[in-house]
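Quick log. Single chain, no ligands specified.
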Amino acid sequence: MAQTVLMPQLGESVTEGTIGQWLKKVGDSVDKYESLLEVLTDKVNAEVPSPVAGKIAKILVEDGQTVPIGTPICEIEVSGGQAEEASTAAAASVKADEPKAETPAAPAATTQADDGQRGRYSPAVRRLAQERGIDPGSLTGTGAGGRVTRDDVLSASDAHASEAPKAPSKAHVAPSQSTGAAGTMVSGAPAVIDDEDTLEPLNNVRKVIAERMVRSKQTVPHAWLMVEVDVTGLVALRERLKEEFKAREGVSLTFMPFMIRAVVSALRAVPSMNAQWNGDSIVMKKRINVGMAAATERGLIVPVIKDADQKNIVGLAKSSQDLVKRARNGRLTMDDLSGGTFTVDNTGAVGTVLTYPVINAPEVGIVTMESIVKRPVVMNDMIAIRSMVNVCLSFDHRVVDGAEAGQFVRTIKTELEAITPNTSIY
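-> predicted structure:
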């Protein structure tokens, strides 16, 4: 029998997803839990595993298309003995990250009862239609149940654009706006394209990253501050333990787990930093799930260490390196990419000493660990050479004020500076 696979829900409040690319084609065999495709949303990028073993019979949604959660995206031919298991697995694939009871359920794939424009069109469609100057009520929907989709709005917008006169010019002027994968416009000054220049089309991952960054900067009032931290003791501790640690634990001892541990302490001291903006309310998160910004060949990905406050340095080292390795190999699961409550970025790995990171909304803050450098510092009215690092924090000023943000980074500073060459990591 043919088992239908549905577009899964990749996180709370996500109502639709974009097919990044299919990893299997029609006729290919697939094992249970083997990756079928990459899905992009405005919150995560993830590989979707097959709920059953079988052979790809049909691909119903092509690369680059965006469809609502629960939309059939492919069919897998499975043996009769797997039929019941396949049906259960397919349902689980959609509900794996279903919103909790206090979170409104995502819109269904079919058109709901008319509740004005907010009931008839998804938030992404309404936003895109407004930005393009299109009345969605004037469009004939091609989605399930006649629903107006993003593609319908884009087609109407392109039709209007094609009717506009084009200004002749020797140098071509690129559009000042491009469409992000989640449907919002990424605005910017127009580029001037000379004859010898080349154009590199945006891939779907880069489109999603661009949309997220623009949305965060446009909707979140970023504030920023930085503290200097003396990590001479930490550097000495790592130098003393790194070879023994590698031999015993099988992973390298980096500075990142120490930074994450300090951030955990700061989140405990300032709970308002472990929160999320919710429009007319603030969600105070109970769990401490730390996201780590990881650079990959496909773009920036933020896997999450769940319950980071329950791990020691060894546990954080193993968890962080496992996630980064799987991120770069494209082996992260949907669970790895969801549930973050605060983000840490090791920008110092590329040699920076001062950065202004963009918040991973709806989180309240993101902190960076910069390069550790030796420089002269005044200590007890004397000059000493110390290992120093800058710790930078961007925070949402709607939720957190300067005093709380200051306490947060001071706690990180205190935790890191308390480390000595003899501090236990177990």
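Residues 15 and 106 are 5 Å apart (CA to CA).
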